[in-house]
Amino acid sequence: MLVLMATEFGTQSRLLTVYQFTYRPMILFVRLVYSVLTQVFSRLCLLGMLSAIASGTSLFGQVNISGKPGLLYVPTATLLADGTFHAGYSYNPVNYAFRFNPALNPKLTTRNSESIFFVNLVMLPRLELNINLLRPNGPVQYGARGIGDRQIDVKYGVMTETTRRPSVALILSIPFGIDNSLVTNAVVATKHVSLSSVIELELTAGYASPYFLERSDTRNDQNSTLFSGFVFQDKRDKAAYYLAGPIAGIKASLSRKGGLMAEWDSQHLNLGGYVTLFNHWTVQAGVLNFDQLTVGTSYAFSLLPTKQTARHDKAQ
Fold first, then answer.
1. 42-56: per-residue pLDDT in tens?
2. DSSP alpha helix (H) spans, the chain
3. pLDDT tens for residues 67-96?
């Protein structure tokens, strides 16, 4: 018995030594890095917010469900000023869930609505980077939840809008994700028409390709490289999919502070409205296919000095 107790005590001592000299420093280092990054990001956001508030200009934060300038589901070709940063959240109702529905995946036993978190940044003139994360609401199997459905998209303004022509943009999803839900490979054109000094129409039409490239043959626990498992897919082979075919929409705005919108997302007719508060905070809501409610909110500000942003707006 004494020998057994001594052996057990020795094993515990070794484990404690390994923890103290190996894992504990690693944990402390990760916490330190996370704390520093959080402080840097929060200060950057605060500076941007103060700059935007001081400028007193609206950044027109209306975005679609994945955080791109748009309507409810449909993106637009509207080009934002350099340095414009959006962060926000969208709610996707259960009947239109892209992933967490037993009708879509027989391995699932729960039926869940979805939350979509996003950030969108105008990195260079005409070039935007969008990152979004889709997660289920409520309990699901542990293996099905994971971190969430992560996706990176880029948008490039092929043409800027003039009095005679619309703006045209190309939107592409980077195919390094595994079984992404909000893949967007589309070409869209947008034209603004002023009906009066305060009422403006935004008209959008385009085409979203149903075909896309993804790493669907790769599992998360086997994800050792970004350059494996690529397969061409057709969205229409899935029970639920996002933007595959002709898309169009119209938005009527009142002084660009609020308005109503209608869209065809290649499958359903959706109606909604939005309001922008304090020039930067946007709240929107809509009805998908005259069936269920979707809501979202976003906050926008500029990371660039006011003069640089104004010069780019003037060039447009």
1. 454 444 444 443 333
2. 2-18, 24-55, 142-145, 306-315
3. 999 999 999 999 999 999 999 999 999 889
Tokens of 240: 């639920």
CATH top-level class of 56-315? mainly beta
Do 225 and 231 form a contact (C-beta atoms < 8 A)?
no
Write out pLDDT tens, residues 270-301.
999 999 998 889 999 999 999 999 999 999 99
**How is residue 48 written in tokens?**
């941007």
Strands (E) located in 45-113: 84-92
Q: Can you read off the two tokens belonging to residue 29?
A: 């280092």
Q: How many CB atoms lie within 10 A of CB 59?
A: 23
> Are 149 and 137 spatial neighbours (Cβ–Cβ below 8 Å)?
no
Place of tokens 């149903």: 210
Which residues make Cβ contacts (< 8 Å) with residue 264, sequence separation at least 6? 74, 246, 247, 248, 249, 270
Rounded distance between C-alpha atoms, residue 62 and residue 280, angstroms? 10
The whole-angstrom separation of Cα 248 and Cα 231 is 29
State the pTM of this model.
0.74
Task: Round the average pLDDT of the chain to a whole number and report it.
Answer: 78
CB-based contact 126:78 (threshold 8 Å): no
Q: Which amino acid is at 242?
A: Y
Give the burial class of 290: count Cβ atoms within 10 A of its Cβ; 0-12 exposed, 13-18 middle, 19 or more buried. exposed
Give residues with Cβ within 8 angstroms of 235, minimum separation 6.
183, 210, 211, 212, 241, 242, 243, 244
Q: Where are the domains of the chain?
A: 56-315
